[in-house]
Design goal:
The chain has 333 residues and is mainly β. It is built from 1 helix and 25 strands.
Length: 333
């Protein structure tokens, strides 16, 4: 399937009230649109070799998993069933896609060969297993599951067996986890301090967790790069006072959608830097295996599509003085 491509150049990240370590090569980010249909395309996930991207699309009438080359070409449908798909990830060896699908009142995991074929159901536990992310090696898959509250769980992506209940921090909700590159820690977002913030914890964490983001608003959807250990996430920290987008007909905007941008931080959280700073509903960042690009979905052009950010400011630490000052710089007021 053909697709159009659009490239947008963002402005330089030179703001007087922030502290920088600025290499000569940094200063701008390019954003390229790689899907362009009237349908919902969302949730990009890179193949381990960086050549392909899996994503969800409702272009058949309900959400299915699709595959495409990293430039948006050769889009093919992988799954074909009446159940809605709610999260997916490549296996570490690149041979399978593991995905969550709605089954009655629950969500269960399935895996399907990337060459197509019959999916295999992995879980049948009535726990609601959502947002799977594969380990960088081996067969583990991490997700959030309902154990009386939302907690992080690790499953075997081949057998579907529960490996570990990684967090057990009731009454808080720990969601959207990912593994660190060494497979001994996890990252997730949690409402332990009221708003949603990013936490890092050992595996298994139990009730532990070190908070690494502290800005007003919500920080969600962390993704840990295996290439250099940096962390991407979505945040509304610049836009927590901006009106939301009206509700729409798709599963992504069934409720009002807030203005979010894609950000980068390190594992101590002592710097943050924006990849986007437009508040145009940017979500679900996913690092390429080489750590040089981030795929995400956005409503910036009036429809949910997949975009790729290149020339990332991955070595431009930004140390905020106050969030009021940061907003004034980024929003020009």
């Amino acid at each position: 399937m053909s697709t159009s491509t659009r490239t947008i150049r963002l402005g330089s990240l030179l703001f007087s009230s922030l502290s920088f370590l600025l290499p000569a090569a940094a200063g701008a980010t390019f954003i390229t649109q790689i899907t362009s249909t009237p349908y919902l395309d969302a949730g990009p996930s890179w193949s381990p070799d960086g050549t392909r991207i899996a994503f969800g699309s409702d272009r058949t009438g309900h959400t299915e998993i699709w595959l495409m080359d990293a430039n948006g070409s050769n889009q093919i449908q992988l799954t074909d069933s009446a159940s809605e798909k709610v999260g997916h990830t490549w296996s570490a060896d690149g041979q399978w896609v593991v995905y969550a699908a709605i089954q009655g009142d629950n969500e269960e995991f399935f895996r399907i060969p990337v060459t197509g074929g019959q999916p295999v159901q992995l879980t049948a536990n009535n726990r609601r297993d959502l947002e799977p992310e594969s380990a960088p090696f081996g067969s583990w898959v991490i997700c959030h599951s309902w154990f009386g509250d939302w907690d992080v769980a690790v499953y075997d992506g081949m057998s579907g067996n529960l490996v570990s209940l990684a967090t057990d921090a009731h009454p808080w909700h720990d969601v959207e986890p990912d593994f660190d590159p060494g497979l001994d820690r996890i990252i997730f977002n949690s409402d332990r301090q009221g708003g949603r913030d990013i936490y890092i914890a050992p595996l298994p964490a139990g009730t532990q967790g070190t908070r690494i983001t502290f800005a007003p608003g919500d920080d969600i959807q962390p993704n840990w790069s295996a290439a250099h250990g940096l962390i991407s996430f979505a945040s509304d920290r610049l836009w927590d006072d901006r009106p939301t987008m009206p509700a729409g007909p798709t599963s992504l905007d069934a409720q009002q959608i807030e203005a979010f941008d894609i950000w980068i931080t390190n594992e101590t959280g002592n710097f943050v830097v924006p990849v986007t700073n437009d508040g145009l509903f940017n979500y679900a960042p996913s690092w390429s295996p080489d750590g040089m690009r981030i795929a995400f979905h956005s409503h910036r052009n009036g429809n949910w599509d997949i975009f790729i950010a290149d020339d990332l400011p991955i070595v431009v630490p930004v140390k905020p003085e106050t969030w009021g000052g940061v907003k004034a710089q980024f929003r020009g007021r």
